[in-house]
Design a protein that fits this description.
Largest interface: A-B, 34 and 34 residues
Largest sheet of chain A: 7 strands, mixed
CATH architecture of the largest domain in chain A: 3-Layer(aba) Sandwich
Shape of chain A: globular
Structural class of chain A: alpha/beta
Helix content of chain A: 25-40%
CATH superfamily of the largest domain in chain A: Formyl transferase, N-terminal domain
CATH class of the largest domain in chain A: Alpha Beta
Number of helices of chain A: 8
Strand content of chain A: 15-25%
Oligomer: homotetramer
CATH topology of the largest domain in chain A: Rossmann fold
Number of domains of chain A: 2
Strand order of the largest sheet of chain A: 7-6-5-8-9-10-11
Radius of gyration of chain A: 21 Å
Order of helices and strands of chain A: EHEEHEEHEHEHEHEHEEHEE
């Protein structure tokens, strides 16, 4: 998976290298964004008769292909099992959806712990055999608590964080310090109804559709690169609490789709936009 | 069709009056908005054996039912044929869609004229046998031109106006003077991307859905009561011009659905929200 | 909730009775199906100042309203907590979704037991503290096992059954004997791809949408009255296993929507069609 | 655009050839169907500094690439303007939608004539300046009339035919004789409700979604490869005529999307399935 300045011969160079080393391409997705003259590519190939050993692939790709093309790239192996930590508060539907998939082994992921600012889901975590860390957040301890959270994420070598309706805004320091991706679910079709109480805002505005948006977290609230969105139709009959109820199904499905895309390395971020190869 | 302060016995009172006069209810939709304690009702009944003559129905309903209930109401007859004027600029897809339905007699409506600030669709109007009035708008003549448009709408007793991708913002004076409904199509899922170039905004934000919104025009741009919205999925492969192309189908269908709902008297406006009885 | 032969004055008669006894109507939905001259109504009213005691409401409604109108009717109270039994086999996503909502108290329902023909979800049932009954089905014992299941349902006074991807076809005898509703989720947009392996059928046919259908079970497989359906877009890139994965989210959400509608008494069955008041 | 038996090095071989001749790849889409071990590719490249003259590209591609790879391929130039003939009967919404796009020059296509079995749209064709040929079909003249239609299509070197709600079933002879693609719109989400009166069938079955399907015509009615499908939600309130009305918008948009995809050479047929590169 990689991207670089667009120019002639990029697909040829990459596919030729795979071919010459005996790899068979299973999937290839390529995209050129003409606005920014940027080339994006995602290739999946079969290693069963590949001439280069697994440990050397990255080095060889770097020296033989990537450096010359000035490609911003990464290679992962489909048997890798990333570590994902879930942050949750008092709304459990996204957490439940994640845990059900986890226990069903729907995703190739490990959840080494759940972090929360409330104790509400401690017993649920226990029910699924996952350690639960409680970090209550108040104005005066926020910075210290986040520091502890960051230490924990680092100690456990967590690959990415999922905010499953975590109702605390992560501080700029947290976002700046944590170098790995953070995926958030916002309960509106962003950029509409950013910020607090989006269903109340949607009700007030009288919209006929409500939505949910999964995005990577950046330092600007609700403005990070969007991974996935979806909507459901509402009517004047839907009160705010009906919207909240109907939105729950949307949120959990949109968030889980985004996690799946992220786990499959189908998402490339460039600037504030994503290329999602599906 | 009416609404009033909610209290006990409203449905009973209205349906009893219809029943006692020999009307058979074909459709009845009722809605109570508990947030504002407001009661909304739409009733369609058969006049074939109704005891009250068509000319007297409104008066009798007023004195026997509406005044007592303090109902904000209107009665229309399904054979009425309202007059609708279409405003258009240089984007023709909504106009074409309206004209095709008009010539096919899909709607029970009369289009006595088309108004534009550009001559582009003059021949199309002629092709459909509809008078076309050209009012080019510049900063210095806007007020005078709008005055002429208003005179024309009044002279022809136009029932409502449709802005079919009319790219001029109607002045506050126009909106204040024209007492009948104005329906606009905005090419985004409002409130996201209000104002100019919504598809460019959508592209920049990297959304995964684009939308269209049909709404009644009020003095605040793109903030009137929403009648209908819909979306279509986009991806990183869609350039701004792809979004514009795909959005055209959305806009025309959403606008035409809103016109149909309006023509069928299925929409009640209250505050900045609509009750749409479908 | 009721339906009867359509004729004049039905809404008036019912609402007048509620009004005269001091009830305030919260929701009223009414529908006339002109094809079969059938009138359907669902009324929710507030009992706080209702003149008739809770225990007598049904009797009084029967003698004072329903008999005269020849209404096929039922009255339920919003604080009732129906008993629902879930049947499951080896696919757990619908079960998980139901259990997460159950533990979150999203629905006003009691799940006294889970029935399965496989032991796979025994530990999951235990995790949620719900009794699990295993009835392995083979050709020779099917009839006897179903008899035991029916006895259990009867003994526990179960109000309705949900087949949450239960992969055994209930025998005609079971369906005939069990008088309460059975809700099934079928993993296609019926009537397309009825029967076995609908995703394989969908793949073979090359459809661009896959769907899920929640319906009441009748003696004819996959042909009962439809409560809810939804679809998701697929492409040539989706293999059968991709469809199965993407369909899971659809199935669980569609089934849970149907259960919610059923629990809220928003569904009236007439013939092989449903009136769903939303 | 091409497809062949999948094996190693296909992408490399094709992209290398383009690169070596100075072409810059604008879009590349590739798909491997592992079920049939088939490789599909669509490449768009810029000819501005391509070393091979436009007239020789096909020959050179054939001898230098395609023959060796046993590729089933075709090359078209984006400035080509295919000839499309529209067949219509008495339902005009798809025709209108096509004609509006045609006159707006939304598509790069030529419509040299419209064929119908009814005179209804003769004046509409004239309004758009397109020759209209009337071929009334009765049992006894069907074969002769179809022969004349085929002669006309051949004489005008028509590239493809669109059945825009043409209510005559083309005979097997017609389908067998006409070697170019025929695109049909069927007013249901196939395979549900194939054959006559799909909205009546949908109403009877009580579905909660209605759909439309654009597909290539083969000798088996409504069973050809599907290009595009979409659905719209309906309820018990929708009568058959409501479904027909709401379906019209679906049909015209789905058909026009399919025509656009076909015109852009984004569709590859293999067996009874399509690969649609979007």
């Amino acid at each position: 998976m990689g991207h670089c300045q667009d120019r002639e011969g990029l697909v040829a160079a990459i596919t030729q290298w795979i071919f010459e080393n005996g790899g068979n391409i299973l999937h290839l997705d390529q995209h050129v964004d003409p606005n920014v003259s940027r080339f994006f590519i995602r290739v999946e190939w079969d290693l069963s008769s590949f001439a280069i050993g697994k440990n050397e692939i990255s080095d060889r790709f770097k020296s033989q292909v990537a450096e010359q093309l000035q490609l911003d790239w990464s290679i992962t192996f489909s048997d890798a099992r990333p570590k994902m930590v879930v942050f949750v508060s008092k709304e459990g539907h996204c957490l439940w959806d994640i845990l059900a998939r986890y226990q069903s082994e729907e995703w190739n992921v490990e959840i080494p712990l759940i972090i929360s600012n409330h104790e509400k889901f401690e017993s649920v975590a226990r029910q699924f055999g996952i350690p639960f860390y409680l970090f209550p957040i108040a104005r005066e301890n926020k910075s210290a608590q986040e520091r502890k959270e960051l230490d924990l994420l680092e100690k456990l070598k967590v690959d990415f964080v999922v905010l499953a309706r975590y109702m605390q805004i992560l501080s700029d320091e947290f976002v700046a310090c944590y170098k790995n991706p953070i995926i958030n679910i916002h309960h509106s079709f962003l950029p509409a109804f950013a910020g607090a109480k989006p269903y109340h805002q949607a009700y007030e505005r009288g919209v006929k559709l409500i939505g949910a948006t999964a995005h990577y977290v950046t330092s600007v609230l609700d403005e990070g690169p969007i991974i996935e969105q979806d909507i459901v139709r509402v009517s004047h009959r839907d009160s705010v609490s009906d919207m909240i109820r109907r939105g729950r199904d949307l949120e959990k499905v949109v968030l889980s789709r985004a996690i799946f895309l992220h786990l499959n390395r189908q998402v490339i971020v460039h600037g504030n936009r994503t290329v999602v190869f599906t």
